[in-house]
Write a structure and sequence with these properties.
heterodimer; A: Rossmann fold; Rossmann fold; 12 strands; 17% strand; B: Rossmann fold; seven-stranded mixed beta sheet; five-stranded mixed beta sheet; 14 helices; globular
């Protein structure tokens, strides 16, 4: 990821690989279709609030170290801010800003009542003890207390943060406000107000988007070959659910390489192997394949669910799939999208395809507010309703404006926020 | 509590609210079985030591002007045991000989019970040391309101929720809601459960425990492969739990072959006419004066009557070391709190009769309190079929978790429930960490 994601660069080569610039570009395109005035564009472009805090921590060695943390609230017109907190050495304000805007559009596409936020702490979790991580989390939470809350800003896990981190945030917040406040954060363990079905949610959303797109293409799952790049929470679970739907998943990958079997992989068996050996390597009922070659193999559907910038202007011509469902954030560059458009390849864009996670985060928040927790079937049914509706909304917008699903998703997202902005007006 | 004299001089057979062992407090006695459970699961000592002490104990002076104009200061308490899983939930007691250590035991008991049933609360218990029989309603109301005001910083829907108890009925719950709401300048009906339905109480509250027991019975029939068709069931008690349960099981087609109240028991091999008996009771009639096609007996005979299922729903220690061996049933379900004494438990277990422990079996009340709190938070009330369906869900989930643990670890159901409880609360505490 680039160090200065939203800084304008004259270098076209670099631009293609900056997913945040792609996003800014898409926002402008959407704003043009919607014929938004410059004032509205400016309101929707800028974060509403940015907070930088110092986080002093007494390290295990006895020395005191001061970390830097951020929380950016891009937009809370549609509801409280929602977005992850990441712990990484290369966290910077520009990136957090861009990711917070991304969340605004994602929440808007799936029509959940949240704005976008994002946070991060500059630190290297690999060099920190559990105790030091807990101290960082708690002090960071205390420092941003005033802008957090179930009706203000609701963080979630992101890079290098997990259920445990969320439990610490929930506890710190609850102790400060002197009451149990599970709804201040999502992605919690089930025993502390987490939602059933959350772990599988993003993968399930990917499957549902694929299913809906296939319906529009008039195709059935049987004998449809799917290549999934990745095998983690999104790719692995996505592959499993597609397999259960009757798709023929022919290839899966992890960071060490890919496996392929033209007759279709036995996904439960592959995942069991992965769980046991922590790598796909050594799985016998498939051939090995280099990661660099995987996505160009023959298939009908490609699910890039690993990292950004996988499909670029250099390789988009070699993609065999007729349908791409973006499980990862920003796997397709803007230039690649143009090539795919020309070739008639349908791309279900990231802000729609991988929004299952944030949708179940929303369900978690709802359940915490009620204090009543749904069974997994109820969660899955409601996720399905939300994803199918979002897919159809985006598909309708694509037809209406005669644009790709990606541009349509942005048009829909920006329009929904702009409508609320117009109705709420400027408070002063 | 029913004030029947104990027939036994054995310490473990004394009635409840009395220390069960001379040198041990109620809290220590109650915790002993959970200490065992903690040992069994091999939990970290430090983490468990947190659970051995209540999180917070609050003691308040409650001054009230009596009807004659004089002032009396009552003692009020609220013990909050563990907040790991959520806000506290626990009863309020109005009792002349209220003992703090009993409240401690009760608070911890609530923590474990909520954990087993999977409702997001920690346990608490509180009370005012006052003799409700000796004071006017106005004085009791004054005491309850002042007590509530004294605790206003520590209670509320997300802090600590009151549930009713024997002498603290829905009227008392209404006073508390009103006091909390007046202080907060906003309606706070989720601060209390067991309210009148007209002010946020839930439907299905009256027979919640009985409905829960009915679900448990169905699950137990399957697990223990009891004969298909109508079962012969003996129920001790005709109160909120026993009476409602008799009505429900009679509706389900079972034969209630024995039932009792304080005055005595009724027996009939072919099944009693439950609607008629409950009608008699509702007219204020005692069972020993009931006239119908059945035999009269005493409670001791009732408990040794041959049956398929025995469900004691009346007093603690109903089955004790002297009568346990006479029990003639295939299954015991504890409807009351602690109806089988520790010694009786060993005897009955030795004879191979399964006992479904109270912590699991009579959890319907706690689940219903939880449902009331949820509905108050949403501001939307569920209809009765929805409530009963959801109650079934919670009882079934708790049952499945407990029986699975029993099968995996080859322990008794009571131990399995204790292990689950400790494990769940400890896991939450561990995840949350120690805040400082």
């Amino acid at each position: 990821m680039s160090n200065s994601p939203v800084a304008l660069s004259a270098n076209q080569e670099l631009d293609e690989f900056n997913p945040f610039l792609s996003m800014a570009h898409l926002f402008n395109q959407a704003a043009n279709y919607l014929d938004l005035d410059e004032g509205t564009r400016e309101v929707l472009r800028r974060p509403e609030r940015e907070l930088t805090v110092s986080i002093p921590v007494s390290m295990d060695s006895g020395v005191t170290k001061v970390f830097t943390g951020y929380r950016v609230q891009h937009n809370f017109l549609r509801g409280p801010c929602k977005g992850g907190i990441r712990f990484a050495p290369d966290v910077n304000l520009d990136e957090v800003r861009a990711l917070s805007a991304w969340m605004t559009w994602k929440c808007s596409v799936v029509d959940i009542p949240f704005g976008g936020g994002k946070g991060g702490v500059i630190c290297d979790p690999r060099e920190l003890s559990e105790r030091e991580l807990e101290q960082i989390t708690r002090r960071y939470t205390a420092a941003i207390m005033d802008i957090l809350g179930p009706d203000r800003d609701v963080p979630a896990p992101d890079m290098n943060t997990n259920e445990q981190t969320m439990a610490w945030i929930m506890d710190t917040y609850s102790m400060h406000v002197r009451r149990t406040t599970t709804a201040v954060v999502t992605g919690k363990p089930i025993s502390l107000g987490g939602s059933r079905g959350r772990r599988e949610a993003t993968g399930r959303g990917v499957m549902l988007c694929c299913r809906e797109a296939m319906k529009k293409l008039g195709r059935r799952p049987e004998n449809t070959r799917v290549i999934v790049q990745g095998s983690g929470n999104v790719g692995g679970i996505g592959a499993l659910l597609l397999y259960r739907e009757g798709y023929k998943v022919t290839s899966l990958s992890d960071m060490y390489g890919a496996i392929i079997n033209e007759n279709g992989l036995d996904i439960p068996q592959v995942l069991e192997h992965l769980r046991k050996h922590r790598t796909l390597e050594g799985y016998e009922e498939a051939d090995r394949l280099a990661n660099t070659e995987q996505i160009f193999q023959e298939c009908d559907v490609l699910v890039p669910a690993a990292t950004e910038n996988q499909i670029t202007s250099k390789n988009a011509h070699n993609i065999q799939a007729q349908l791409i469902v973006e499980g990862a954030n920003g796997p397709t560059t803007a230039a690649a999208q143009e090539i795919l458009d020309e070739r008639g390849v349908v791309v279900v864009p990231d802000i729609l395809a991988n929004a299952g996670g944030v949708t179940v985060s929303y369900f978690e928040w709802v359940q915490d507010r009620m204090g009543y927790f749904w069974t997994e079937e109820v969660v899955n049914t409601r996720l399905e309703q939300a994803m199918v509706k979002a897919f159809n909304d985006v598909n309708d917008a694509a037809k209406k404006y005669d644009v790709s699903l990606r541009v349509a998703a942005y048009i829909l997202a920006v329009e929904r926020v702009a409508v609320v902005y117009r109705m709420r007006g400027i408070f002063a | 509590m029913v004030d029947t004299p104990s027939v036994d001089d054995e310490l473990d057979d004394l009635l409840p609210s009395t220390p069960l062992l001379d040198d041990e407090t109620p809290f220590a006695t109650m915790m002993a079985s959970f200490d065992e459970a903690a040992h069994e699961i091999g939990i970290d000592k430090g983490v468990y030591s947190i659970l051995r002490k209540p999180d917070r104990e609050i003691s308040v002076a409650v001054p009230v002007r009596l009807d004659d104009g004089s002032i009396q200061v009552f003692d009020g308490y609220r013990i909050q045991h563990s907040a790991g899983l959520g806000p506290f939930l626990g009863p309020l007691r109005l009792e002349k000989s209220l003992k703090v250590d009993e409240l401690r035991a009760l608070a911890a008991w609530m923590t474990w019970k909520c954990a087993v049933l999977g409702v997001p609360f920690g346990g608490s218990a509180g009370g005012i040391r006052i003799n409700p029989a000796r004071h006017s309603d106005a004085v009791i109301e004054g005491a309850v309101r002042r007590y509530t005001a004294c605790l206003s910083a520590d209670i509320g829907p997300d802090r600590d929720v009151f549930s009713p108890d024997v002498k603290a009925d829905e009227r008392v719950m209404a006073w508390i809601v009103d006091t909390v709401s007046q202080h907060a300048r906003t309606t706070v009906n989720a601060a209390v459960t067991g309210k009148p339905t007209s002010m946020g109480g839930t439907l299905g509250h009256e027979d919640a425990v009985a409905q829960g027991l009915r679900v448990i019975l169905r699950l137990a029939i399957e697990r223990y492969k009891l004969p298909a068709g109508p079962l012969r069931i003996v129920i001790q008690g005709t109160g909120t739990v026993g009476g409602n349960l008799a009505r429900l099981l009679h509706q389900d087609g079972h034969h209630i072959v024995g039932i009792s109240d304080v005055s005595g028991a009724l027996l009939s091999k072919n099944g009693l006419d439950i609607p008629s008996i409950l009608h008699w009771r509702s007219q204020g009639g005692a069972l020993d004066a009931y006239e119908g096609p059945c035999d009269h007996a005493d409670n001791a005979e009732l408990l040794s009557t041959e049956c398929d299922v025995l469900i004691p729903c009346a007093v603690a220690n109903a089955l004790h070391s002297r009568n346990a061996a006479r029990v003639n049933t295939k299954l015991i379900i504890e409807g009351a709190h602690g109806p089988v004494s520790a010694k009786a438990d060993r005897i009955i277990h030795g004879e191979g009769v399964p006992i479904i422990p109270d912590i699991l079996a009579n959890g319907g009340g706690v689940v219903m309190s939880y449902f009331e709190w949820v509905q108050n938070r949403m501001g939307y009330s569920w209809i009765l079929p929805v409530i009963n369906k959801r109650l079934r869900r919670f009882m079934t989930e708790a049952w499945t978790d407990c029986t699975r643990r029993t099968d995996e670890r080859k322990v008794r159901l009571r131990m399995a429930a204790g292990m689950l409880a400790v494990e769940r609360v400890a896991a939450a505490d561990q995840l949350r960490g120690i805040y400082a």
